[in-house]
C-alpha cells in the first residue's frame, strides 16, 4: 500500500479549515490542521509534507513570517507553499508572498477545482520523489551487496532495478516539465519559477548519477544527490 502524502492546512479560522478539508478530501491524502503559524512550525518538526496551504492574515505570526521560518529550515525549505488570502492589496502584496517563498498566491474566494488541481500537482511530485528515494536506497543495497537485496526479499539484478529507477525518474521529469510550463503560462513571479528550476536541478543531478551507473560507464558512480 502506497503511503499517503500529508498536506498542511494553516488558518486561524476553523470554518476555513473545514472548507479546505471539504475541497481537498477528494485527493484522498492526509490533511493536517494548524490554527496558527506556531502550530504549523511545530507540525513541521516531526512530519514531512507534500505542500502547505498557508493563510496570510493570522493573528500573531502571520503567513509571511511563518513562511520565512519554513524557508530558513533546511528540513522544510523545499516544501511548496501556496498562500491563501481574503484580501488583495495589489501587486506589491502579491510580490511579498512570492518573495517569502510561495509557489502560488490565491485570493479568496477561490475556485475549488483550481485549488484542488494545483495541490494535486505537488502531491504527485512528492509521491514520485518518495518512490525514487526508496528505489535508490534499494539499488544502493543491491550494488553494495553484489546483487543481493540484503534481506529485503528482492532478488532482481541491479540492471533491472536501475531500469525501473530510470523509468520512475522519467515520470517525475515529465511532471516537473509540466509544472514549469504551467508556471510560464500563468506568468508566475520569478520566485515561483525559481522553485521549479530548483526541482529540475535536483532531477538533473539524479539523472547524471543514474547515467553513471549504466553498464559500460567508466569510473566510479557519483553518490545520489541529496533530497534536501
Automatic annotation (TrEMBL):
InterPro entries: Bact_response_regulator, CheY-like_superfamily, Sig_transdc_resp-reg_receiver. SUPFAM superfamilies: CheY-like (SSF52172). It holds the Pfam family Response_reg. Transmembrane segments: none annotated. SMART domains: REC. It comes from the Bacteria. Keywords: Coiled coil, Phosphoprotein. Residues 162-189 form a coiled coil. Residues 6-123 form the Response regulatory domain. The modification 4-aspartylphosphate is found at residue 55. The keyword Coiled coil applies. PANTHER family: RESPONSE REGULATORY DOMAIN-CONTAINING PROTEIN, STRESS RESPONSE REGULATOR PROTEIN 1. This is Response regulator. It comes from Streptomyces enissocaesilis.
Amino acid at each position: 500500500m502506497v503511503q499517503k502524502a500529508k498536506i498542511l492546512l494553516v488558518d486561524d479560522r476553523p470554518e476555513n479549515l473545514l472548507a479546505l478539508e471539504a475541497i481537498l478530501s477528494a485527493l484522498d491524502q492526509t490533511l493536517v490542521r494548524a490554527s496558527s503559524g506556531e502550530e504549523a512550525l511545530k507540525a513541521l518538526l516531526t512530519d514531512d509534507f507534500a505542500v502547505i496551504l498557508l493563510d496570510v492574515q493570522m493573528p500573531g505570526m502571520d503567513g509571511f513570517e511563518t513562511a520565512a521560518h519554513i524557508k530558513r529550515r533546511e528540513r522544510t525549505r523545499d516544501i511548496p507553499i501556496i498562500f491563501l488570502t481574503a484580501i488583495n492589496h495589489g501587486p506589491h502584496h502579491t510580490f511579498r508572498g512570492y518573495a517569502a517563498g510561495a509557489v502560488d498566491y490565491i485570493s479568496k474566494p477561490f475556485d475549488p477545482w483550481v485549488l484542488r488541481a494545483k495541490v494535486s500537482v505537488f502531491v504527485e511530485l512528492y509521491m514520485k520523489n518518495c518512490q525514487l528515494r526508496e528505489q535508490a536506497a534499494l539499488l544502493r543495497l543491491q550494488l553494495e551487496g553484489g546483487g543481493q537485496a540484503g534481506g529485503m526479499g528482492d532478488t532482481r539484478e541491479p540492471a533491472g532495478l536501475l531500469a525501473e529507477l530510470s523509468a520512475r525518474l522519467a515520470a517525475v521529469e515529465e511532471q516537473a516539465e509540466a509544472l514549469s510550463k504551467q508556471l510560464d503560462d500563468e506568468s508566475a513571479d520569478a520566485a515561483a519559477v525559481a522553485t521549479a528550476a530548483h526541482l529540475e536541478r535536483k532531477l538533473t543531478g539524479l539523472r547524471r548519477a543514474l547515467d553513471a551507473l549504466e553498464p559500460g560507464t567508466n569510473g566510479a558512480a557519483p553518490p545520489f544527490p541529496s533530497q534536501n
